[in-house]
Design brief:
Chain lengths: 438, 374
């Protein structure tokens, strides 16, 4: 047993989060039985837009699905080997390979809902990483030619946003809606779009507000738990159930934990953050850290993949204010949606590592961290982009850091023992000893 | 006949330094073929493409994670080692994530006077891509004007387009000669010619091409052997091409960003100049990172293979080059299954295991020749 310094207790809404996630995969599998539609696309796609097709339109976002597969290492290996046998390189995005493999072996990661991989009716994607649209170009081919639409959002960092950049994205969005009507044969409902956009504002705002609460000592949440919570935003950030869960259940509960001094890790004496997706099959690393009284309070990844942020009047980072604007028509909704998404923290480093380094250093200071673990993630070229420069910048800022190499979705490229040894060495370097109760 | 091109290729830095001394002009390093060189020529700036040196290096490791392509790391290494110390500026037009890191690390660690990241549409199949890029080109032009302190007039842009178009036209003329049953140039010579065009003043290059075209049609080389196509990632690996041709084959066409993808299309000279430049870069044969949702590149590759009467194709890929890795299975299918052209797939690094590759290429040629072993 380990010593405890702070009281701990399980999250009351934990099971609700798990149920919402399960329902999501169940709904996708059973959509056709309910007369609904299925679409597939990335977690960053503008999911508020297909929402205008009706309340019976269900999605399967690729990255969380790829991570779900990765968590089941045997299933993941089966998927990866099927993809490699098809001629694709094994250094490609491991989520993508897990997803393609699932198509190729025709098995769904949620067999209790469907033995076979449920084929989408259309693909709705966005593009900022080189793999984004190509992922679904191949997926479409593997599934016999599913209609696909993708929106390029790679217009440069938010701080350099101009009207013509917004126009480029909004123009594609309008085209996309016309395309959706054509491929589904349904009329588009702008009211449903506006409702979804407002839900997305709430989801992104409240997830950031929840992460902000982790500035508290002790941290009310640890990153391993946060993975099971932020995922809802990656499944469907524009859904009422996501926004409501974050705003009305999780946020009040975490706020209450802070008020009562409830810790995620009872023996917290060391705080770190990570970077990029974790090796999903090896989340026990986070439990290992607890032996040192070390809590990972999150990361730019967990904070900023879905959460939106802004610099507040006092100079600190806080949740981005929900726009107080009246949205009366489709164009206004699309413009607001484009602008909102373009400020996403995890979209900024695609143009320069400095933008990410600044955010990471800010987190390290404001969340009062002792160190940073940088996952040089061979499975994701998008989020590993510039990571070596991030490390140099963090080092220059005087923040201890521990790089380790691995792969979020392909366990063949992760060495657990070596990583644990590296953790031991890092902890020693920052004067942390294992806490044991005798 | 191709000595000048070879000399430019091998002594690119000496050339650029002398060009600066001679003209007093500025030199900008470019990281991708989507950079609109027309605007740089309009401003009397020499664009020089930053390429690697095909030598092992140990200076980029701390800047770019080793899972990114060796080419982008090799490019950065050239800067870190001071080989491009004559550059006044650097610029990149948005394409793949890999080369983008060479640009951003260069920006962070190698002092230059001017740096410009040119946002460039990835969704080139969208009708909104040209208007968007046109606006970005206006901003790029303005940034160049502010840096040089010189207004770029419509006439200057027109001149820039003419310089670039003339080079493209002349290169196409040379490439047309490669369609003949006995092409008057080798693949290696073609590589020196096209890659050097990305490093020297195009006006000089154009003169050299015009002189070449006077003599080339009457040049006779030996039997070409197996007519091969080479395609894939960035490729200026002259040693590899020389090895393949030493085995009795002839590379008659390529589909690389260092080859045809660089020069194949001209800018339309009618209408608004910047919009026409934008149109050219949006509609050109795309880098695979921009070739979606439809695969437009495949038809182009197949057409080249047929037009140049190709008997086999070398699909090469820079290790870890995701965009090309995402196209490779489709290319294999298009060439092998749909049109029956055998292919050999080779993964390249900054240096290639030439002996091992020689064995593989020999085996590939034996298959094409349908040679009996016994």
């Amino acid at each position: 047993m380990l010593e405890t310094k702070y009281p701990t207790e399980p999250l009351k809404c934990w099971n609700k989060a798990k149920t919402l996630r399960e329902n999501y995969y169940k709904d996708f599998a059973e959509a056709h039985e309910k007369g609904g539609l299925r679409w597939a696309g990335g977690a960053w796609s503008f999911d508020a837009i297909p929402a205008g097709l009706g309340d019976d339109v269900y999605s399967l976002t690729g990255e969380p699905y790829g991570a779900t597969v990765a968590f089941n290492d045997k299933f993941a290996l089966e998927c990866q080997e099927a993809t490699e046998a098809r001629g694709f390189a094994r250094d490609l995005c491991s989520y993508m390979r897990n997803y393609w493999g699932s198509i190729l072996i025709n098995k769904y990661a949620w067999p209790q809902f469907s033995e076979e991989f449920p084929k989408a009716d259309f693909i709705w994607q966005d593009h900022i990483c080189c793999s984004h649209s190509k992922w679904y170009q191949v997926a479409s081919e593997l599934e016999g030619g599913i209609p696909m639409f993708s929106i390029d959002v790679s217009v440069g960092p938010y701080e350099e946003l101009t009207d013509h950049k917004i126009n480029y994205i909004v123009g594609q969005m309008h085209d996309g809606i016309n395309w959706l009507e054509k491929v589904t044969g349904r009329d588009y409902d702008d009211e449903l779009l506006i409702k979804a956009v407002k839900n997305e504002f709430r989801s992104c705002h409240y997830w950031a507000a929840i992460c902000e609460l982790n500035k508290a000592i002790p941290a009310p949440l640890d990153e391993k738990s946060m993975y099971s919570l932020y995922v809802l935003g990656t499944l469907k950030k524009s859904a009422q159930w996501t926004a409501d869960f974050y705003e009305k259940e999780l946020y009040p509960e975490v706020k209450d934990r802070v008020a009562r001094g409830i810790a995620a890790v009872g023996n917290e004496k060391c705080r770190i953050m990570t970077d990029t997706q974790p090796p999903w099959a090896f989340l026990r690393i986070f439990r290992y850290l607890e032996q040192y009284g070390c809590v990972s309070i999150g990361s730019l990844y967990t904070f900023g993949l879905i959460g939106l942020w802004e610099v507040k009047a006092d100079g600190t980072w806080g949740p981005k204010t929900i726009p107080e604007i009246e949205i009366t028509n489709r164009d206004e909704a699309l413009r607001a949606l484009a602008d909102w998404n373009l400020s996403k923290p995890e979209w900024q480093h695609f143009y320069h590592p400095k933008l990410k380094s600044d955010m990471m250093i800010r987190i390290a200071k404001e969340w009062k961290l002792d160190g940073v673990f940088l996952h040089f993630n061979r499975g994701c070229e998008g989020l590993s982009l510039g990571i070596a420069e991030n490390r140099l910048a963090i080092q220059k800022a005087g923040i201890p850091n521990m790089p380790f190499e691995g792969n979020m979705g392909d366990e063949r490229e992760f060495d657990l023992e070596r990583t644990m040894k590296r953790v031991d060495a890092f902890m020693e370097s920052i004067d942390m000893e294992k806490i044991r109760k005798f | 006949m191709f000595e000048q091109f070879k000399d430019w290729y091998e002594n690119r830095h000496d050339y650029a330094k002398k060009w600066k001394e001679r003209t007093g002009g500025k030199v900008i390093g470019t990281f991708c073929t989507y950079v609109p060189e027309e605007i740089l020529y309009a401003a009397d700036i020499l664009p020089v493409r930053i390429l690697g040196s095909h030598e092992p290096q140990d200076v980029s490791e701390q800047h770019i994670f080793a899972m990114f392509c060796p080419f982008c790391r090799d490019c950065l290494a050239q800067g870190l080692m001071g080989r491009f110390d004559y550059l006044d500026g650097i610029t990149i037009a948005q394409s793949c994530l890999h080369i983008r890191q060479a640009f951003t690390s260069w920006d962070l660690h190698i002092p230059v006077d001017f740096k410009y990241y040119l946002p460039h549409p990835m969704h080139v199949q969208s009708p909104h891509a040209i208007p968007y890029l046109t606006e970005e080109l206006k901003a790029f032009k303005k940034a160049i004007e502010e840096w040089t302190g010189k207004l770029i007039t419509d006439g200057d842009i027109k001149r820039g387009i003419e310089i670039m178009n003339k080079n493209r036209k002349l290169l196409r003329q040379v490439y047309e000669l490669r369609k003949s049953p006995n092409p008057p140039l080798t693949g290696l010579e073609a590589m020196y010619m096209v890659v050097s065009s990305q490093m020297v003043d195009k006006r000089e290059h154009n003169k050299a091409l015009e002189e070449l075209l006077e003599k080339l049609p009457s040049r006779t080389l030996g039997e070409p052997g197996e007519r091969l196509m080479i395609l894939g990632s960035e490729d200026d690996d002259t040693e590899f091409v020389a090895m393949v041709e030493d085995l009795g084959a002839r590379i008659v066409i390529d589909e690389h960003c260092t080859g045809t993808r660089y020069f194949y299309e001209e800018v339309n000279t009618n209408g608004d100049a910047l919009a026409s430049i934008a149109e050219r870069y949006v509609k050109r044969v795309p880098c695979p990172s921009k070739d979606w949702p439809e695969r437009t590149r495949l038809d182009h590759i197949v057409k080249l293979a047929k037009d140049y009467d190709v008997k086999g194709a070398i699909v090469m890929q820079m290790k870890f080059c995701d965009p090309h890795e995402l196209d490779t299975p489709a290319i294999k299918e298009a060439l092998e299954i749909e049109v029956g052209i055998p292919i050999i797939f080779l993964e390249f690094d900054v240096t290639v295991p030439i002996g091992q590759f020689k064995t593989r290429v020999e085996a590939f040629l034996e298959i094409i020749r349908e040679e009996d072993l016994f």
